[in-house]
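[SOLVED] Need 3D model of a two-part complex

Original post:
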Amino acid sequence: MDSKVKSGKEILDDFFANISEIKNVDKGLADSLSNLYQQGKLSDTAVKNELSNLRDKDANKN
Amino acid sequence: MQTKIKKISITGLRGVQKTMELPLSEKSILLYGDNGTGKSSISDSVEWFFNDSVSHLSGSEIELKEAMRNANLNETEVASVEIDFSKAIFTSDKTLAYKKGKLVNDYSNKSTEFDEYIEKTKSENLILRYQFLTDFIDKTKGDKLKSLSDVIGFSEVNKTKDILKKAYNSIKSEIKNQNYEAQINTQKQIQIEKIGAAIGVDRNLFEIVNEIISPIKLGLEVKSFTDIDVVLNLLKAPRNTKELNELRFLESCKSTLTNLKGEIELLNSEYEKYYSEFKIIADDVQGIMQVFFAELLKAGSTVLEKYHKDETCPLCLQPKEKKELLIEIQKRLKEIEESSKKKAVYDLAKQTVTQFSTERIKRLDILRSDVHYNENNIEQIKKAIDNLAVKISLYEKAGNEKVTSGNKLSDAKDLKLKDTDFAIIDTLASKIGEIQTELTKDNNAVTYSNISAAKEAFQRIKKFEKEKRVLEDQRSSMELIYTEFVKRQKEGLENFISTFSGTINEYYQFMNPGEQFQELKIVTIGEEDELNGITIEYKYNENWVSPPQKYFSESHLNCFGLSFFLASVIAFNKENKFLFLDDVISSFDSNHRIRFANLLFEKFADYQIILLTHEIEWYQYVSQLAKRKSWLINEIKWNDADGTHLEDKPTDLREIIETNLAKGNVDILGNPIRKYLEHTLKDICANLEVKVSFRMNEQNEKRMPDELLNELKSKINKSSVELKAHIPIIDRIINSNILGNLLSHDNPFSPKLGDLKSFWTDLTDMEKLFYCQDTACKKPVLVKHYDTVKKRIRCGCDKTNYDWKS
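Solution:
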C-alpha cells in the first residue's frame, strides 16, 4: 500500500496517469479513458461511446 | 506561506443581484443570514471560482453556468467573483458573461503561477456544507462511504467509480444481448449441411473445398479466400445465377430464423422476468406512488434548498419551517429506499427485454431489406417473417411501456414465441430442397451453392468470434480497471484514516469531553479489493461497539463528520489557510454547538474561517467569542432590489449619510438614518443597562427607536444628574417630525434637507454624550465600568464620565 495520504484529485490523477500499466489491460482502452479524464470529459456517455468506437476500430482491423 | 483572503467581491452570481463586497483583510468572519437570504451565494461563488463546479449544483438537470448567474441579470451584464489574496500574485476575478449567445467564463489573471495555484487548490478541502454532513448522518453503511468521501473531498473519486462500473456493466449486457454462441452454432450447422463438417480454421476449409472441386478438374488449388472466389466465378454459369441468388437468400432466411428459434426460450424467459417485475410494481400502487414520489421529493428538496426563500411549504404555502420540511423529506426518501431497489431490478429487466427485441428485429430487417424479399414466389415466407417481426415488436413495445401509464402488459403466455411461429422454416427447407434438386441437374451449381454457403458461414463465424473476443477483452480490461480503481480508493481512504485517526479522535473528543465513546475509528467493509461501505467503531464501557447508531445521537455523528473534514483540511490544504463552513451545525444540539465553536477558536486559530449560519442563538453565542478574537461579524440580507447583500455596518452607514446629506440626496437617506439611529440606540441602551419590557426571543431585538429613547430618558432621570442636563438633546430627537416620518410605514419619506441635517446633528450630538471623543479611546461609556468609590460610570480611558446612581 502506498503510504502517502492523497487527496481525491491526487488519487484520480495518479490512477489515470498509470492506468495503462495495470497488468493485462488493453492499452488502447486505458489510453482512451486516460485521455477522457485529462480533458475533463469522463462521463457515462463519453465512456460508452469510446468503448463502442474502440470495438468498431478493432472490428475493422484484419 | 499559505495564502488568506483580503477581499471577496461578488457581482450577479447566485442570489447576489448587484455587488456584494466582503472586505476581510485576512481576518475570520462570522456571517449570520436567515434562511432564504442566499448565504450560500458566497460559498457557491468561491467553489465555482476554484473548481468550475459547485458540488450541490451538479446533476444532469442543472446547467451550472445558467444556475450560477443571477436570474435577474440581462444578457449584457457580466457576473463575476473577484478574490484578493494575501499573496497578491494569485488575485484574480472570474467572469461569467454571454459571448455570441453562449455563457463563457474567464479568469483575469493569466499568469502561470495563478494556473498552478488553481490546479493545486483543486486538491484541497476549502468548503464544508450542511448537506454533506446531513447526508453522512442519514445514510446506510454503503452510502455512508460515499457521503464520508464527499466530506473529505473524495466525491469525484466516487463519481468516477460509478462511471467505470456502469461502463463495465454495459459491456456485460451487450455480450448477453448478442448471444454469440447461438449465432455461431447456427453457422456451424450450415457448414455441416453444406460441406459435412464445422470448420474453425481457414486451412481446413481450403482443404475441403479442394476435395469438393477435385472431380470437376478446374486445374486450381485453393489456398486463400480469393482462390475460393475464383472457383465460385468459374462454377457460376449464367443460366442458374437467378436460382443461386434465390437459394442464397432462402438459406439466409433459414439460418436467421433457425438462430432465432434457438433463442425462443431466452427471449420468453426475459419477458416473463420483465412481466413479473412490472406486475410487482404495478400491483403495488403504494410502491409506485413511493418510487415516483421520490422524484417529486428530491425535486422538492432542491427547491427548498436553493430557491424557496420563505418559511412556508412551497406547495400549500402554509407556514412551515424549512429545516423541518427538509428533515421530513429525507425521512420519507429513506422509507422509499426499499421500493427504489425493487424499481432498479425492474429497470434492468425492462432494459434487457427492449435491447433483446430491438436487436432481433434488426436481424429480421436485414432479410426484409434484401432484393429478393419482395419477389412474388415467396409471399408465404414474407408473411411469416413479417408476422414474426410484429410479434417480437410486441415485446419491444411492452418493453417501452411506462409502469405509470395504467396500462397492463400483455400476459407472457399471450406474447410467447412458439415453435409454430417458426413453421416456415420447414417451408424454407423444402423450397431450398426444391432448388437444390433442380440444381442437381447441374453439378457445378450444387458445388457452387455448397462452397459459397460454407464460405459465408465460415466468415460469419469469424466475424462473431472476433466481435465476441473484442467485447470479452473490453469486459476483462474494464473489470481489471474497476478492481484496481476500487483498490486505490480503498487505499486512499484507509491511508487517510490511519494517518489521521489520532487527529480525528482528538477533534471528536474535544467536542465530546468526558463521554464514554473512546478510541473512535472508522472501518472499511469489504474483503481484499472490495469496498462496500464503511462503519464506525468505538470503545464504549471497554467494549468495541459498531455500528454507531446504537448509542450515537445525530450530534455525535455530526461531530464525527466535522472531525473528518477538519482532519482533511490539515491533510490536504497546503496552499490555502482559509476555509468556509456553510451552516454546518444545524444537526447539533446546543452543547455540541458551543464545543464546536470552541474547537474552531482553539485549534484553528491560525486559519481564516468564513463561518456562515442561520441559527440565531448560535450566532449570538459565537459572536461574543468572535469579537474577543477580533473576528469580523456581519449579517446577510436579501431584498428585491439587491438580492443577497451584506447588512450595512454603522461606519459604512455614517459615510453614506454624510455623503448624501452633502449632495442633498434626500430621497435615499431615510433607511440609512433609521438604521443608524436604531443601531446607536440599542448600543447605548445596552451599555447603560436600560431596561425595556420583556419580549420573546428575536422579538426582543425588534425595538422601535421611540421606545428606546423614552426608556433611555427614564434611566438617565433616575441615575445621573449630569446626564439629565443633556436630556434636551434627546428630547429634540423625540420631538422631531423626522423621527415620526422615519417610523411611519404609511407615508412616503419626504422631509426637507434642512430638517434632515438638524436631525443628523442632534443624533450625532447624542452619540457624543455616550462615546468618548478622544481619538485614542472612542470607547462607549459603560455601566460595567462603574467606579464604586467615585460612584461614576466611564468610558475606557476615563476622559468621559458621569455620576451614576446604581
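Edit: Chain A has a mean pLDDT of 88.
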